[in-house]
Write a structure and sequence with these properties.
Layout lengths: L3 E5 L5 H11 L3 E5 L9 H6 L7 E3 L5 E3 L1 H11 L12 H25 L10 H25 L12 H12 L7 H10 L3 H9 L10
Parallel strand pairs: 1-2
Antiparallel strand pairs: 1-3, 3-4
Helix pairs in contact: 1-3, 1-6, 1-8, 4-5, 4-6, 6-7
The structure holds glutathione (GSH).
């Protein structure tokens, strides 16, 4: 294998990984998964037992899942691409803090919104509706917390990091987040970057898509 292999789906969290690979200028083979059922095949589950994208196969053959783990691994390999601030810098701690906040909270809130039936054993439609209502409340709260940390236009100020691309991706899944001026400005600025804009387009972001 020449380079990386990215398993991806339109509208999904693999967008930020494609953006990172493009920002780095890494050679990668995109492997598009259109049918959700393909995530549950033995072949895919051998790559990621969670049955989720993104999954990145490294040139070494190692396979990594979990969006933030993938981004940290790419940053370790290509520090000169400055996906994140340099090791040991206070700015890096902030960028990593908010990456983890987003994956643990905002991404998880979005998954409750998009897959509510996975979060209750009650088959009644009202149960799923209640999960969705709470997910929206949590999304609004968590985006508001993120917004307070944004120096502007990017999280850390003038320089974009992959944390900003992650934030823009999540905001595309929850339109009300764009009512927060700091989030709207950050997203607009992130999309000025041609590498990010390309990943955004390939992943069919900016429309109705949502996570699925
Ligand atoms: N914590 C994981 C979440 C990955 C995830 O939930 N991916 C979604 C797409 S955004 C997925 O593959 N869903 C398919 C499914 O759960 O069936 C990450 O950060 O990579």
């Amino acid at each position: 294998m020449a380079g990386y292999r990215l398993y991806w789906r339109p509208g999904s969290g693999s967008m930020v990984v494609e953006a990172a690979l493009r920002l780095i200028g890494a050679d990668f083979e995109p492997i598009r998964i259109d049918k959700e059922a393909a995530l549950a095949t033995p072949r895919f589950l051998a790559l990621n037992p969670a049955g989720k994208v993104p999954v990145l196969e490294l040139p070494s053959g190692q396979v990594i899942a979990e969006s933030v783990a993938i981004l940290l691994a790419l940053d370790e390999t290509f520090p000169e691409a400055r996906l994140l601030p340099p090791h040991g810098s206070p700015a890096r701690n902030v960028a990593v803090q908010w990456l983890i906040f987003m994956t643990a909270n905002i991404y998880a809130d979005a998954l409750r919104l998009y897959y509510p039936s996975r979060h209750t054993d009650d088959a009644a439609p009202e149960a799923a509706e209640a999960i969705k209502r709470q997910a929206i409340i949590d999304l609004d709260r968590d985006f508001a917390q993120l917004a307070t940390a944004i120096k502007g236009p990017f999280l850390l100020g003038a320089r974009m990091t992959i944390t900003d691309v992650y934030a823009a991706m999540l905001a595309d899944w929850h339109a009300p987040a764009m009512r927060l001026p700091a989030i709207a400005t950050l997203t607009a600025q992130v999309l000025e970057n041609p590498a990010v804009a390309e990943a955004w387009r390939t992943h069919e972001f900016g429309g109705e898509a949502g996570t699925e």
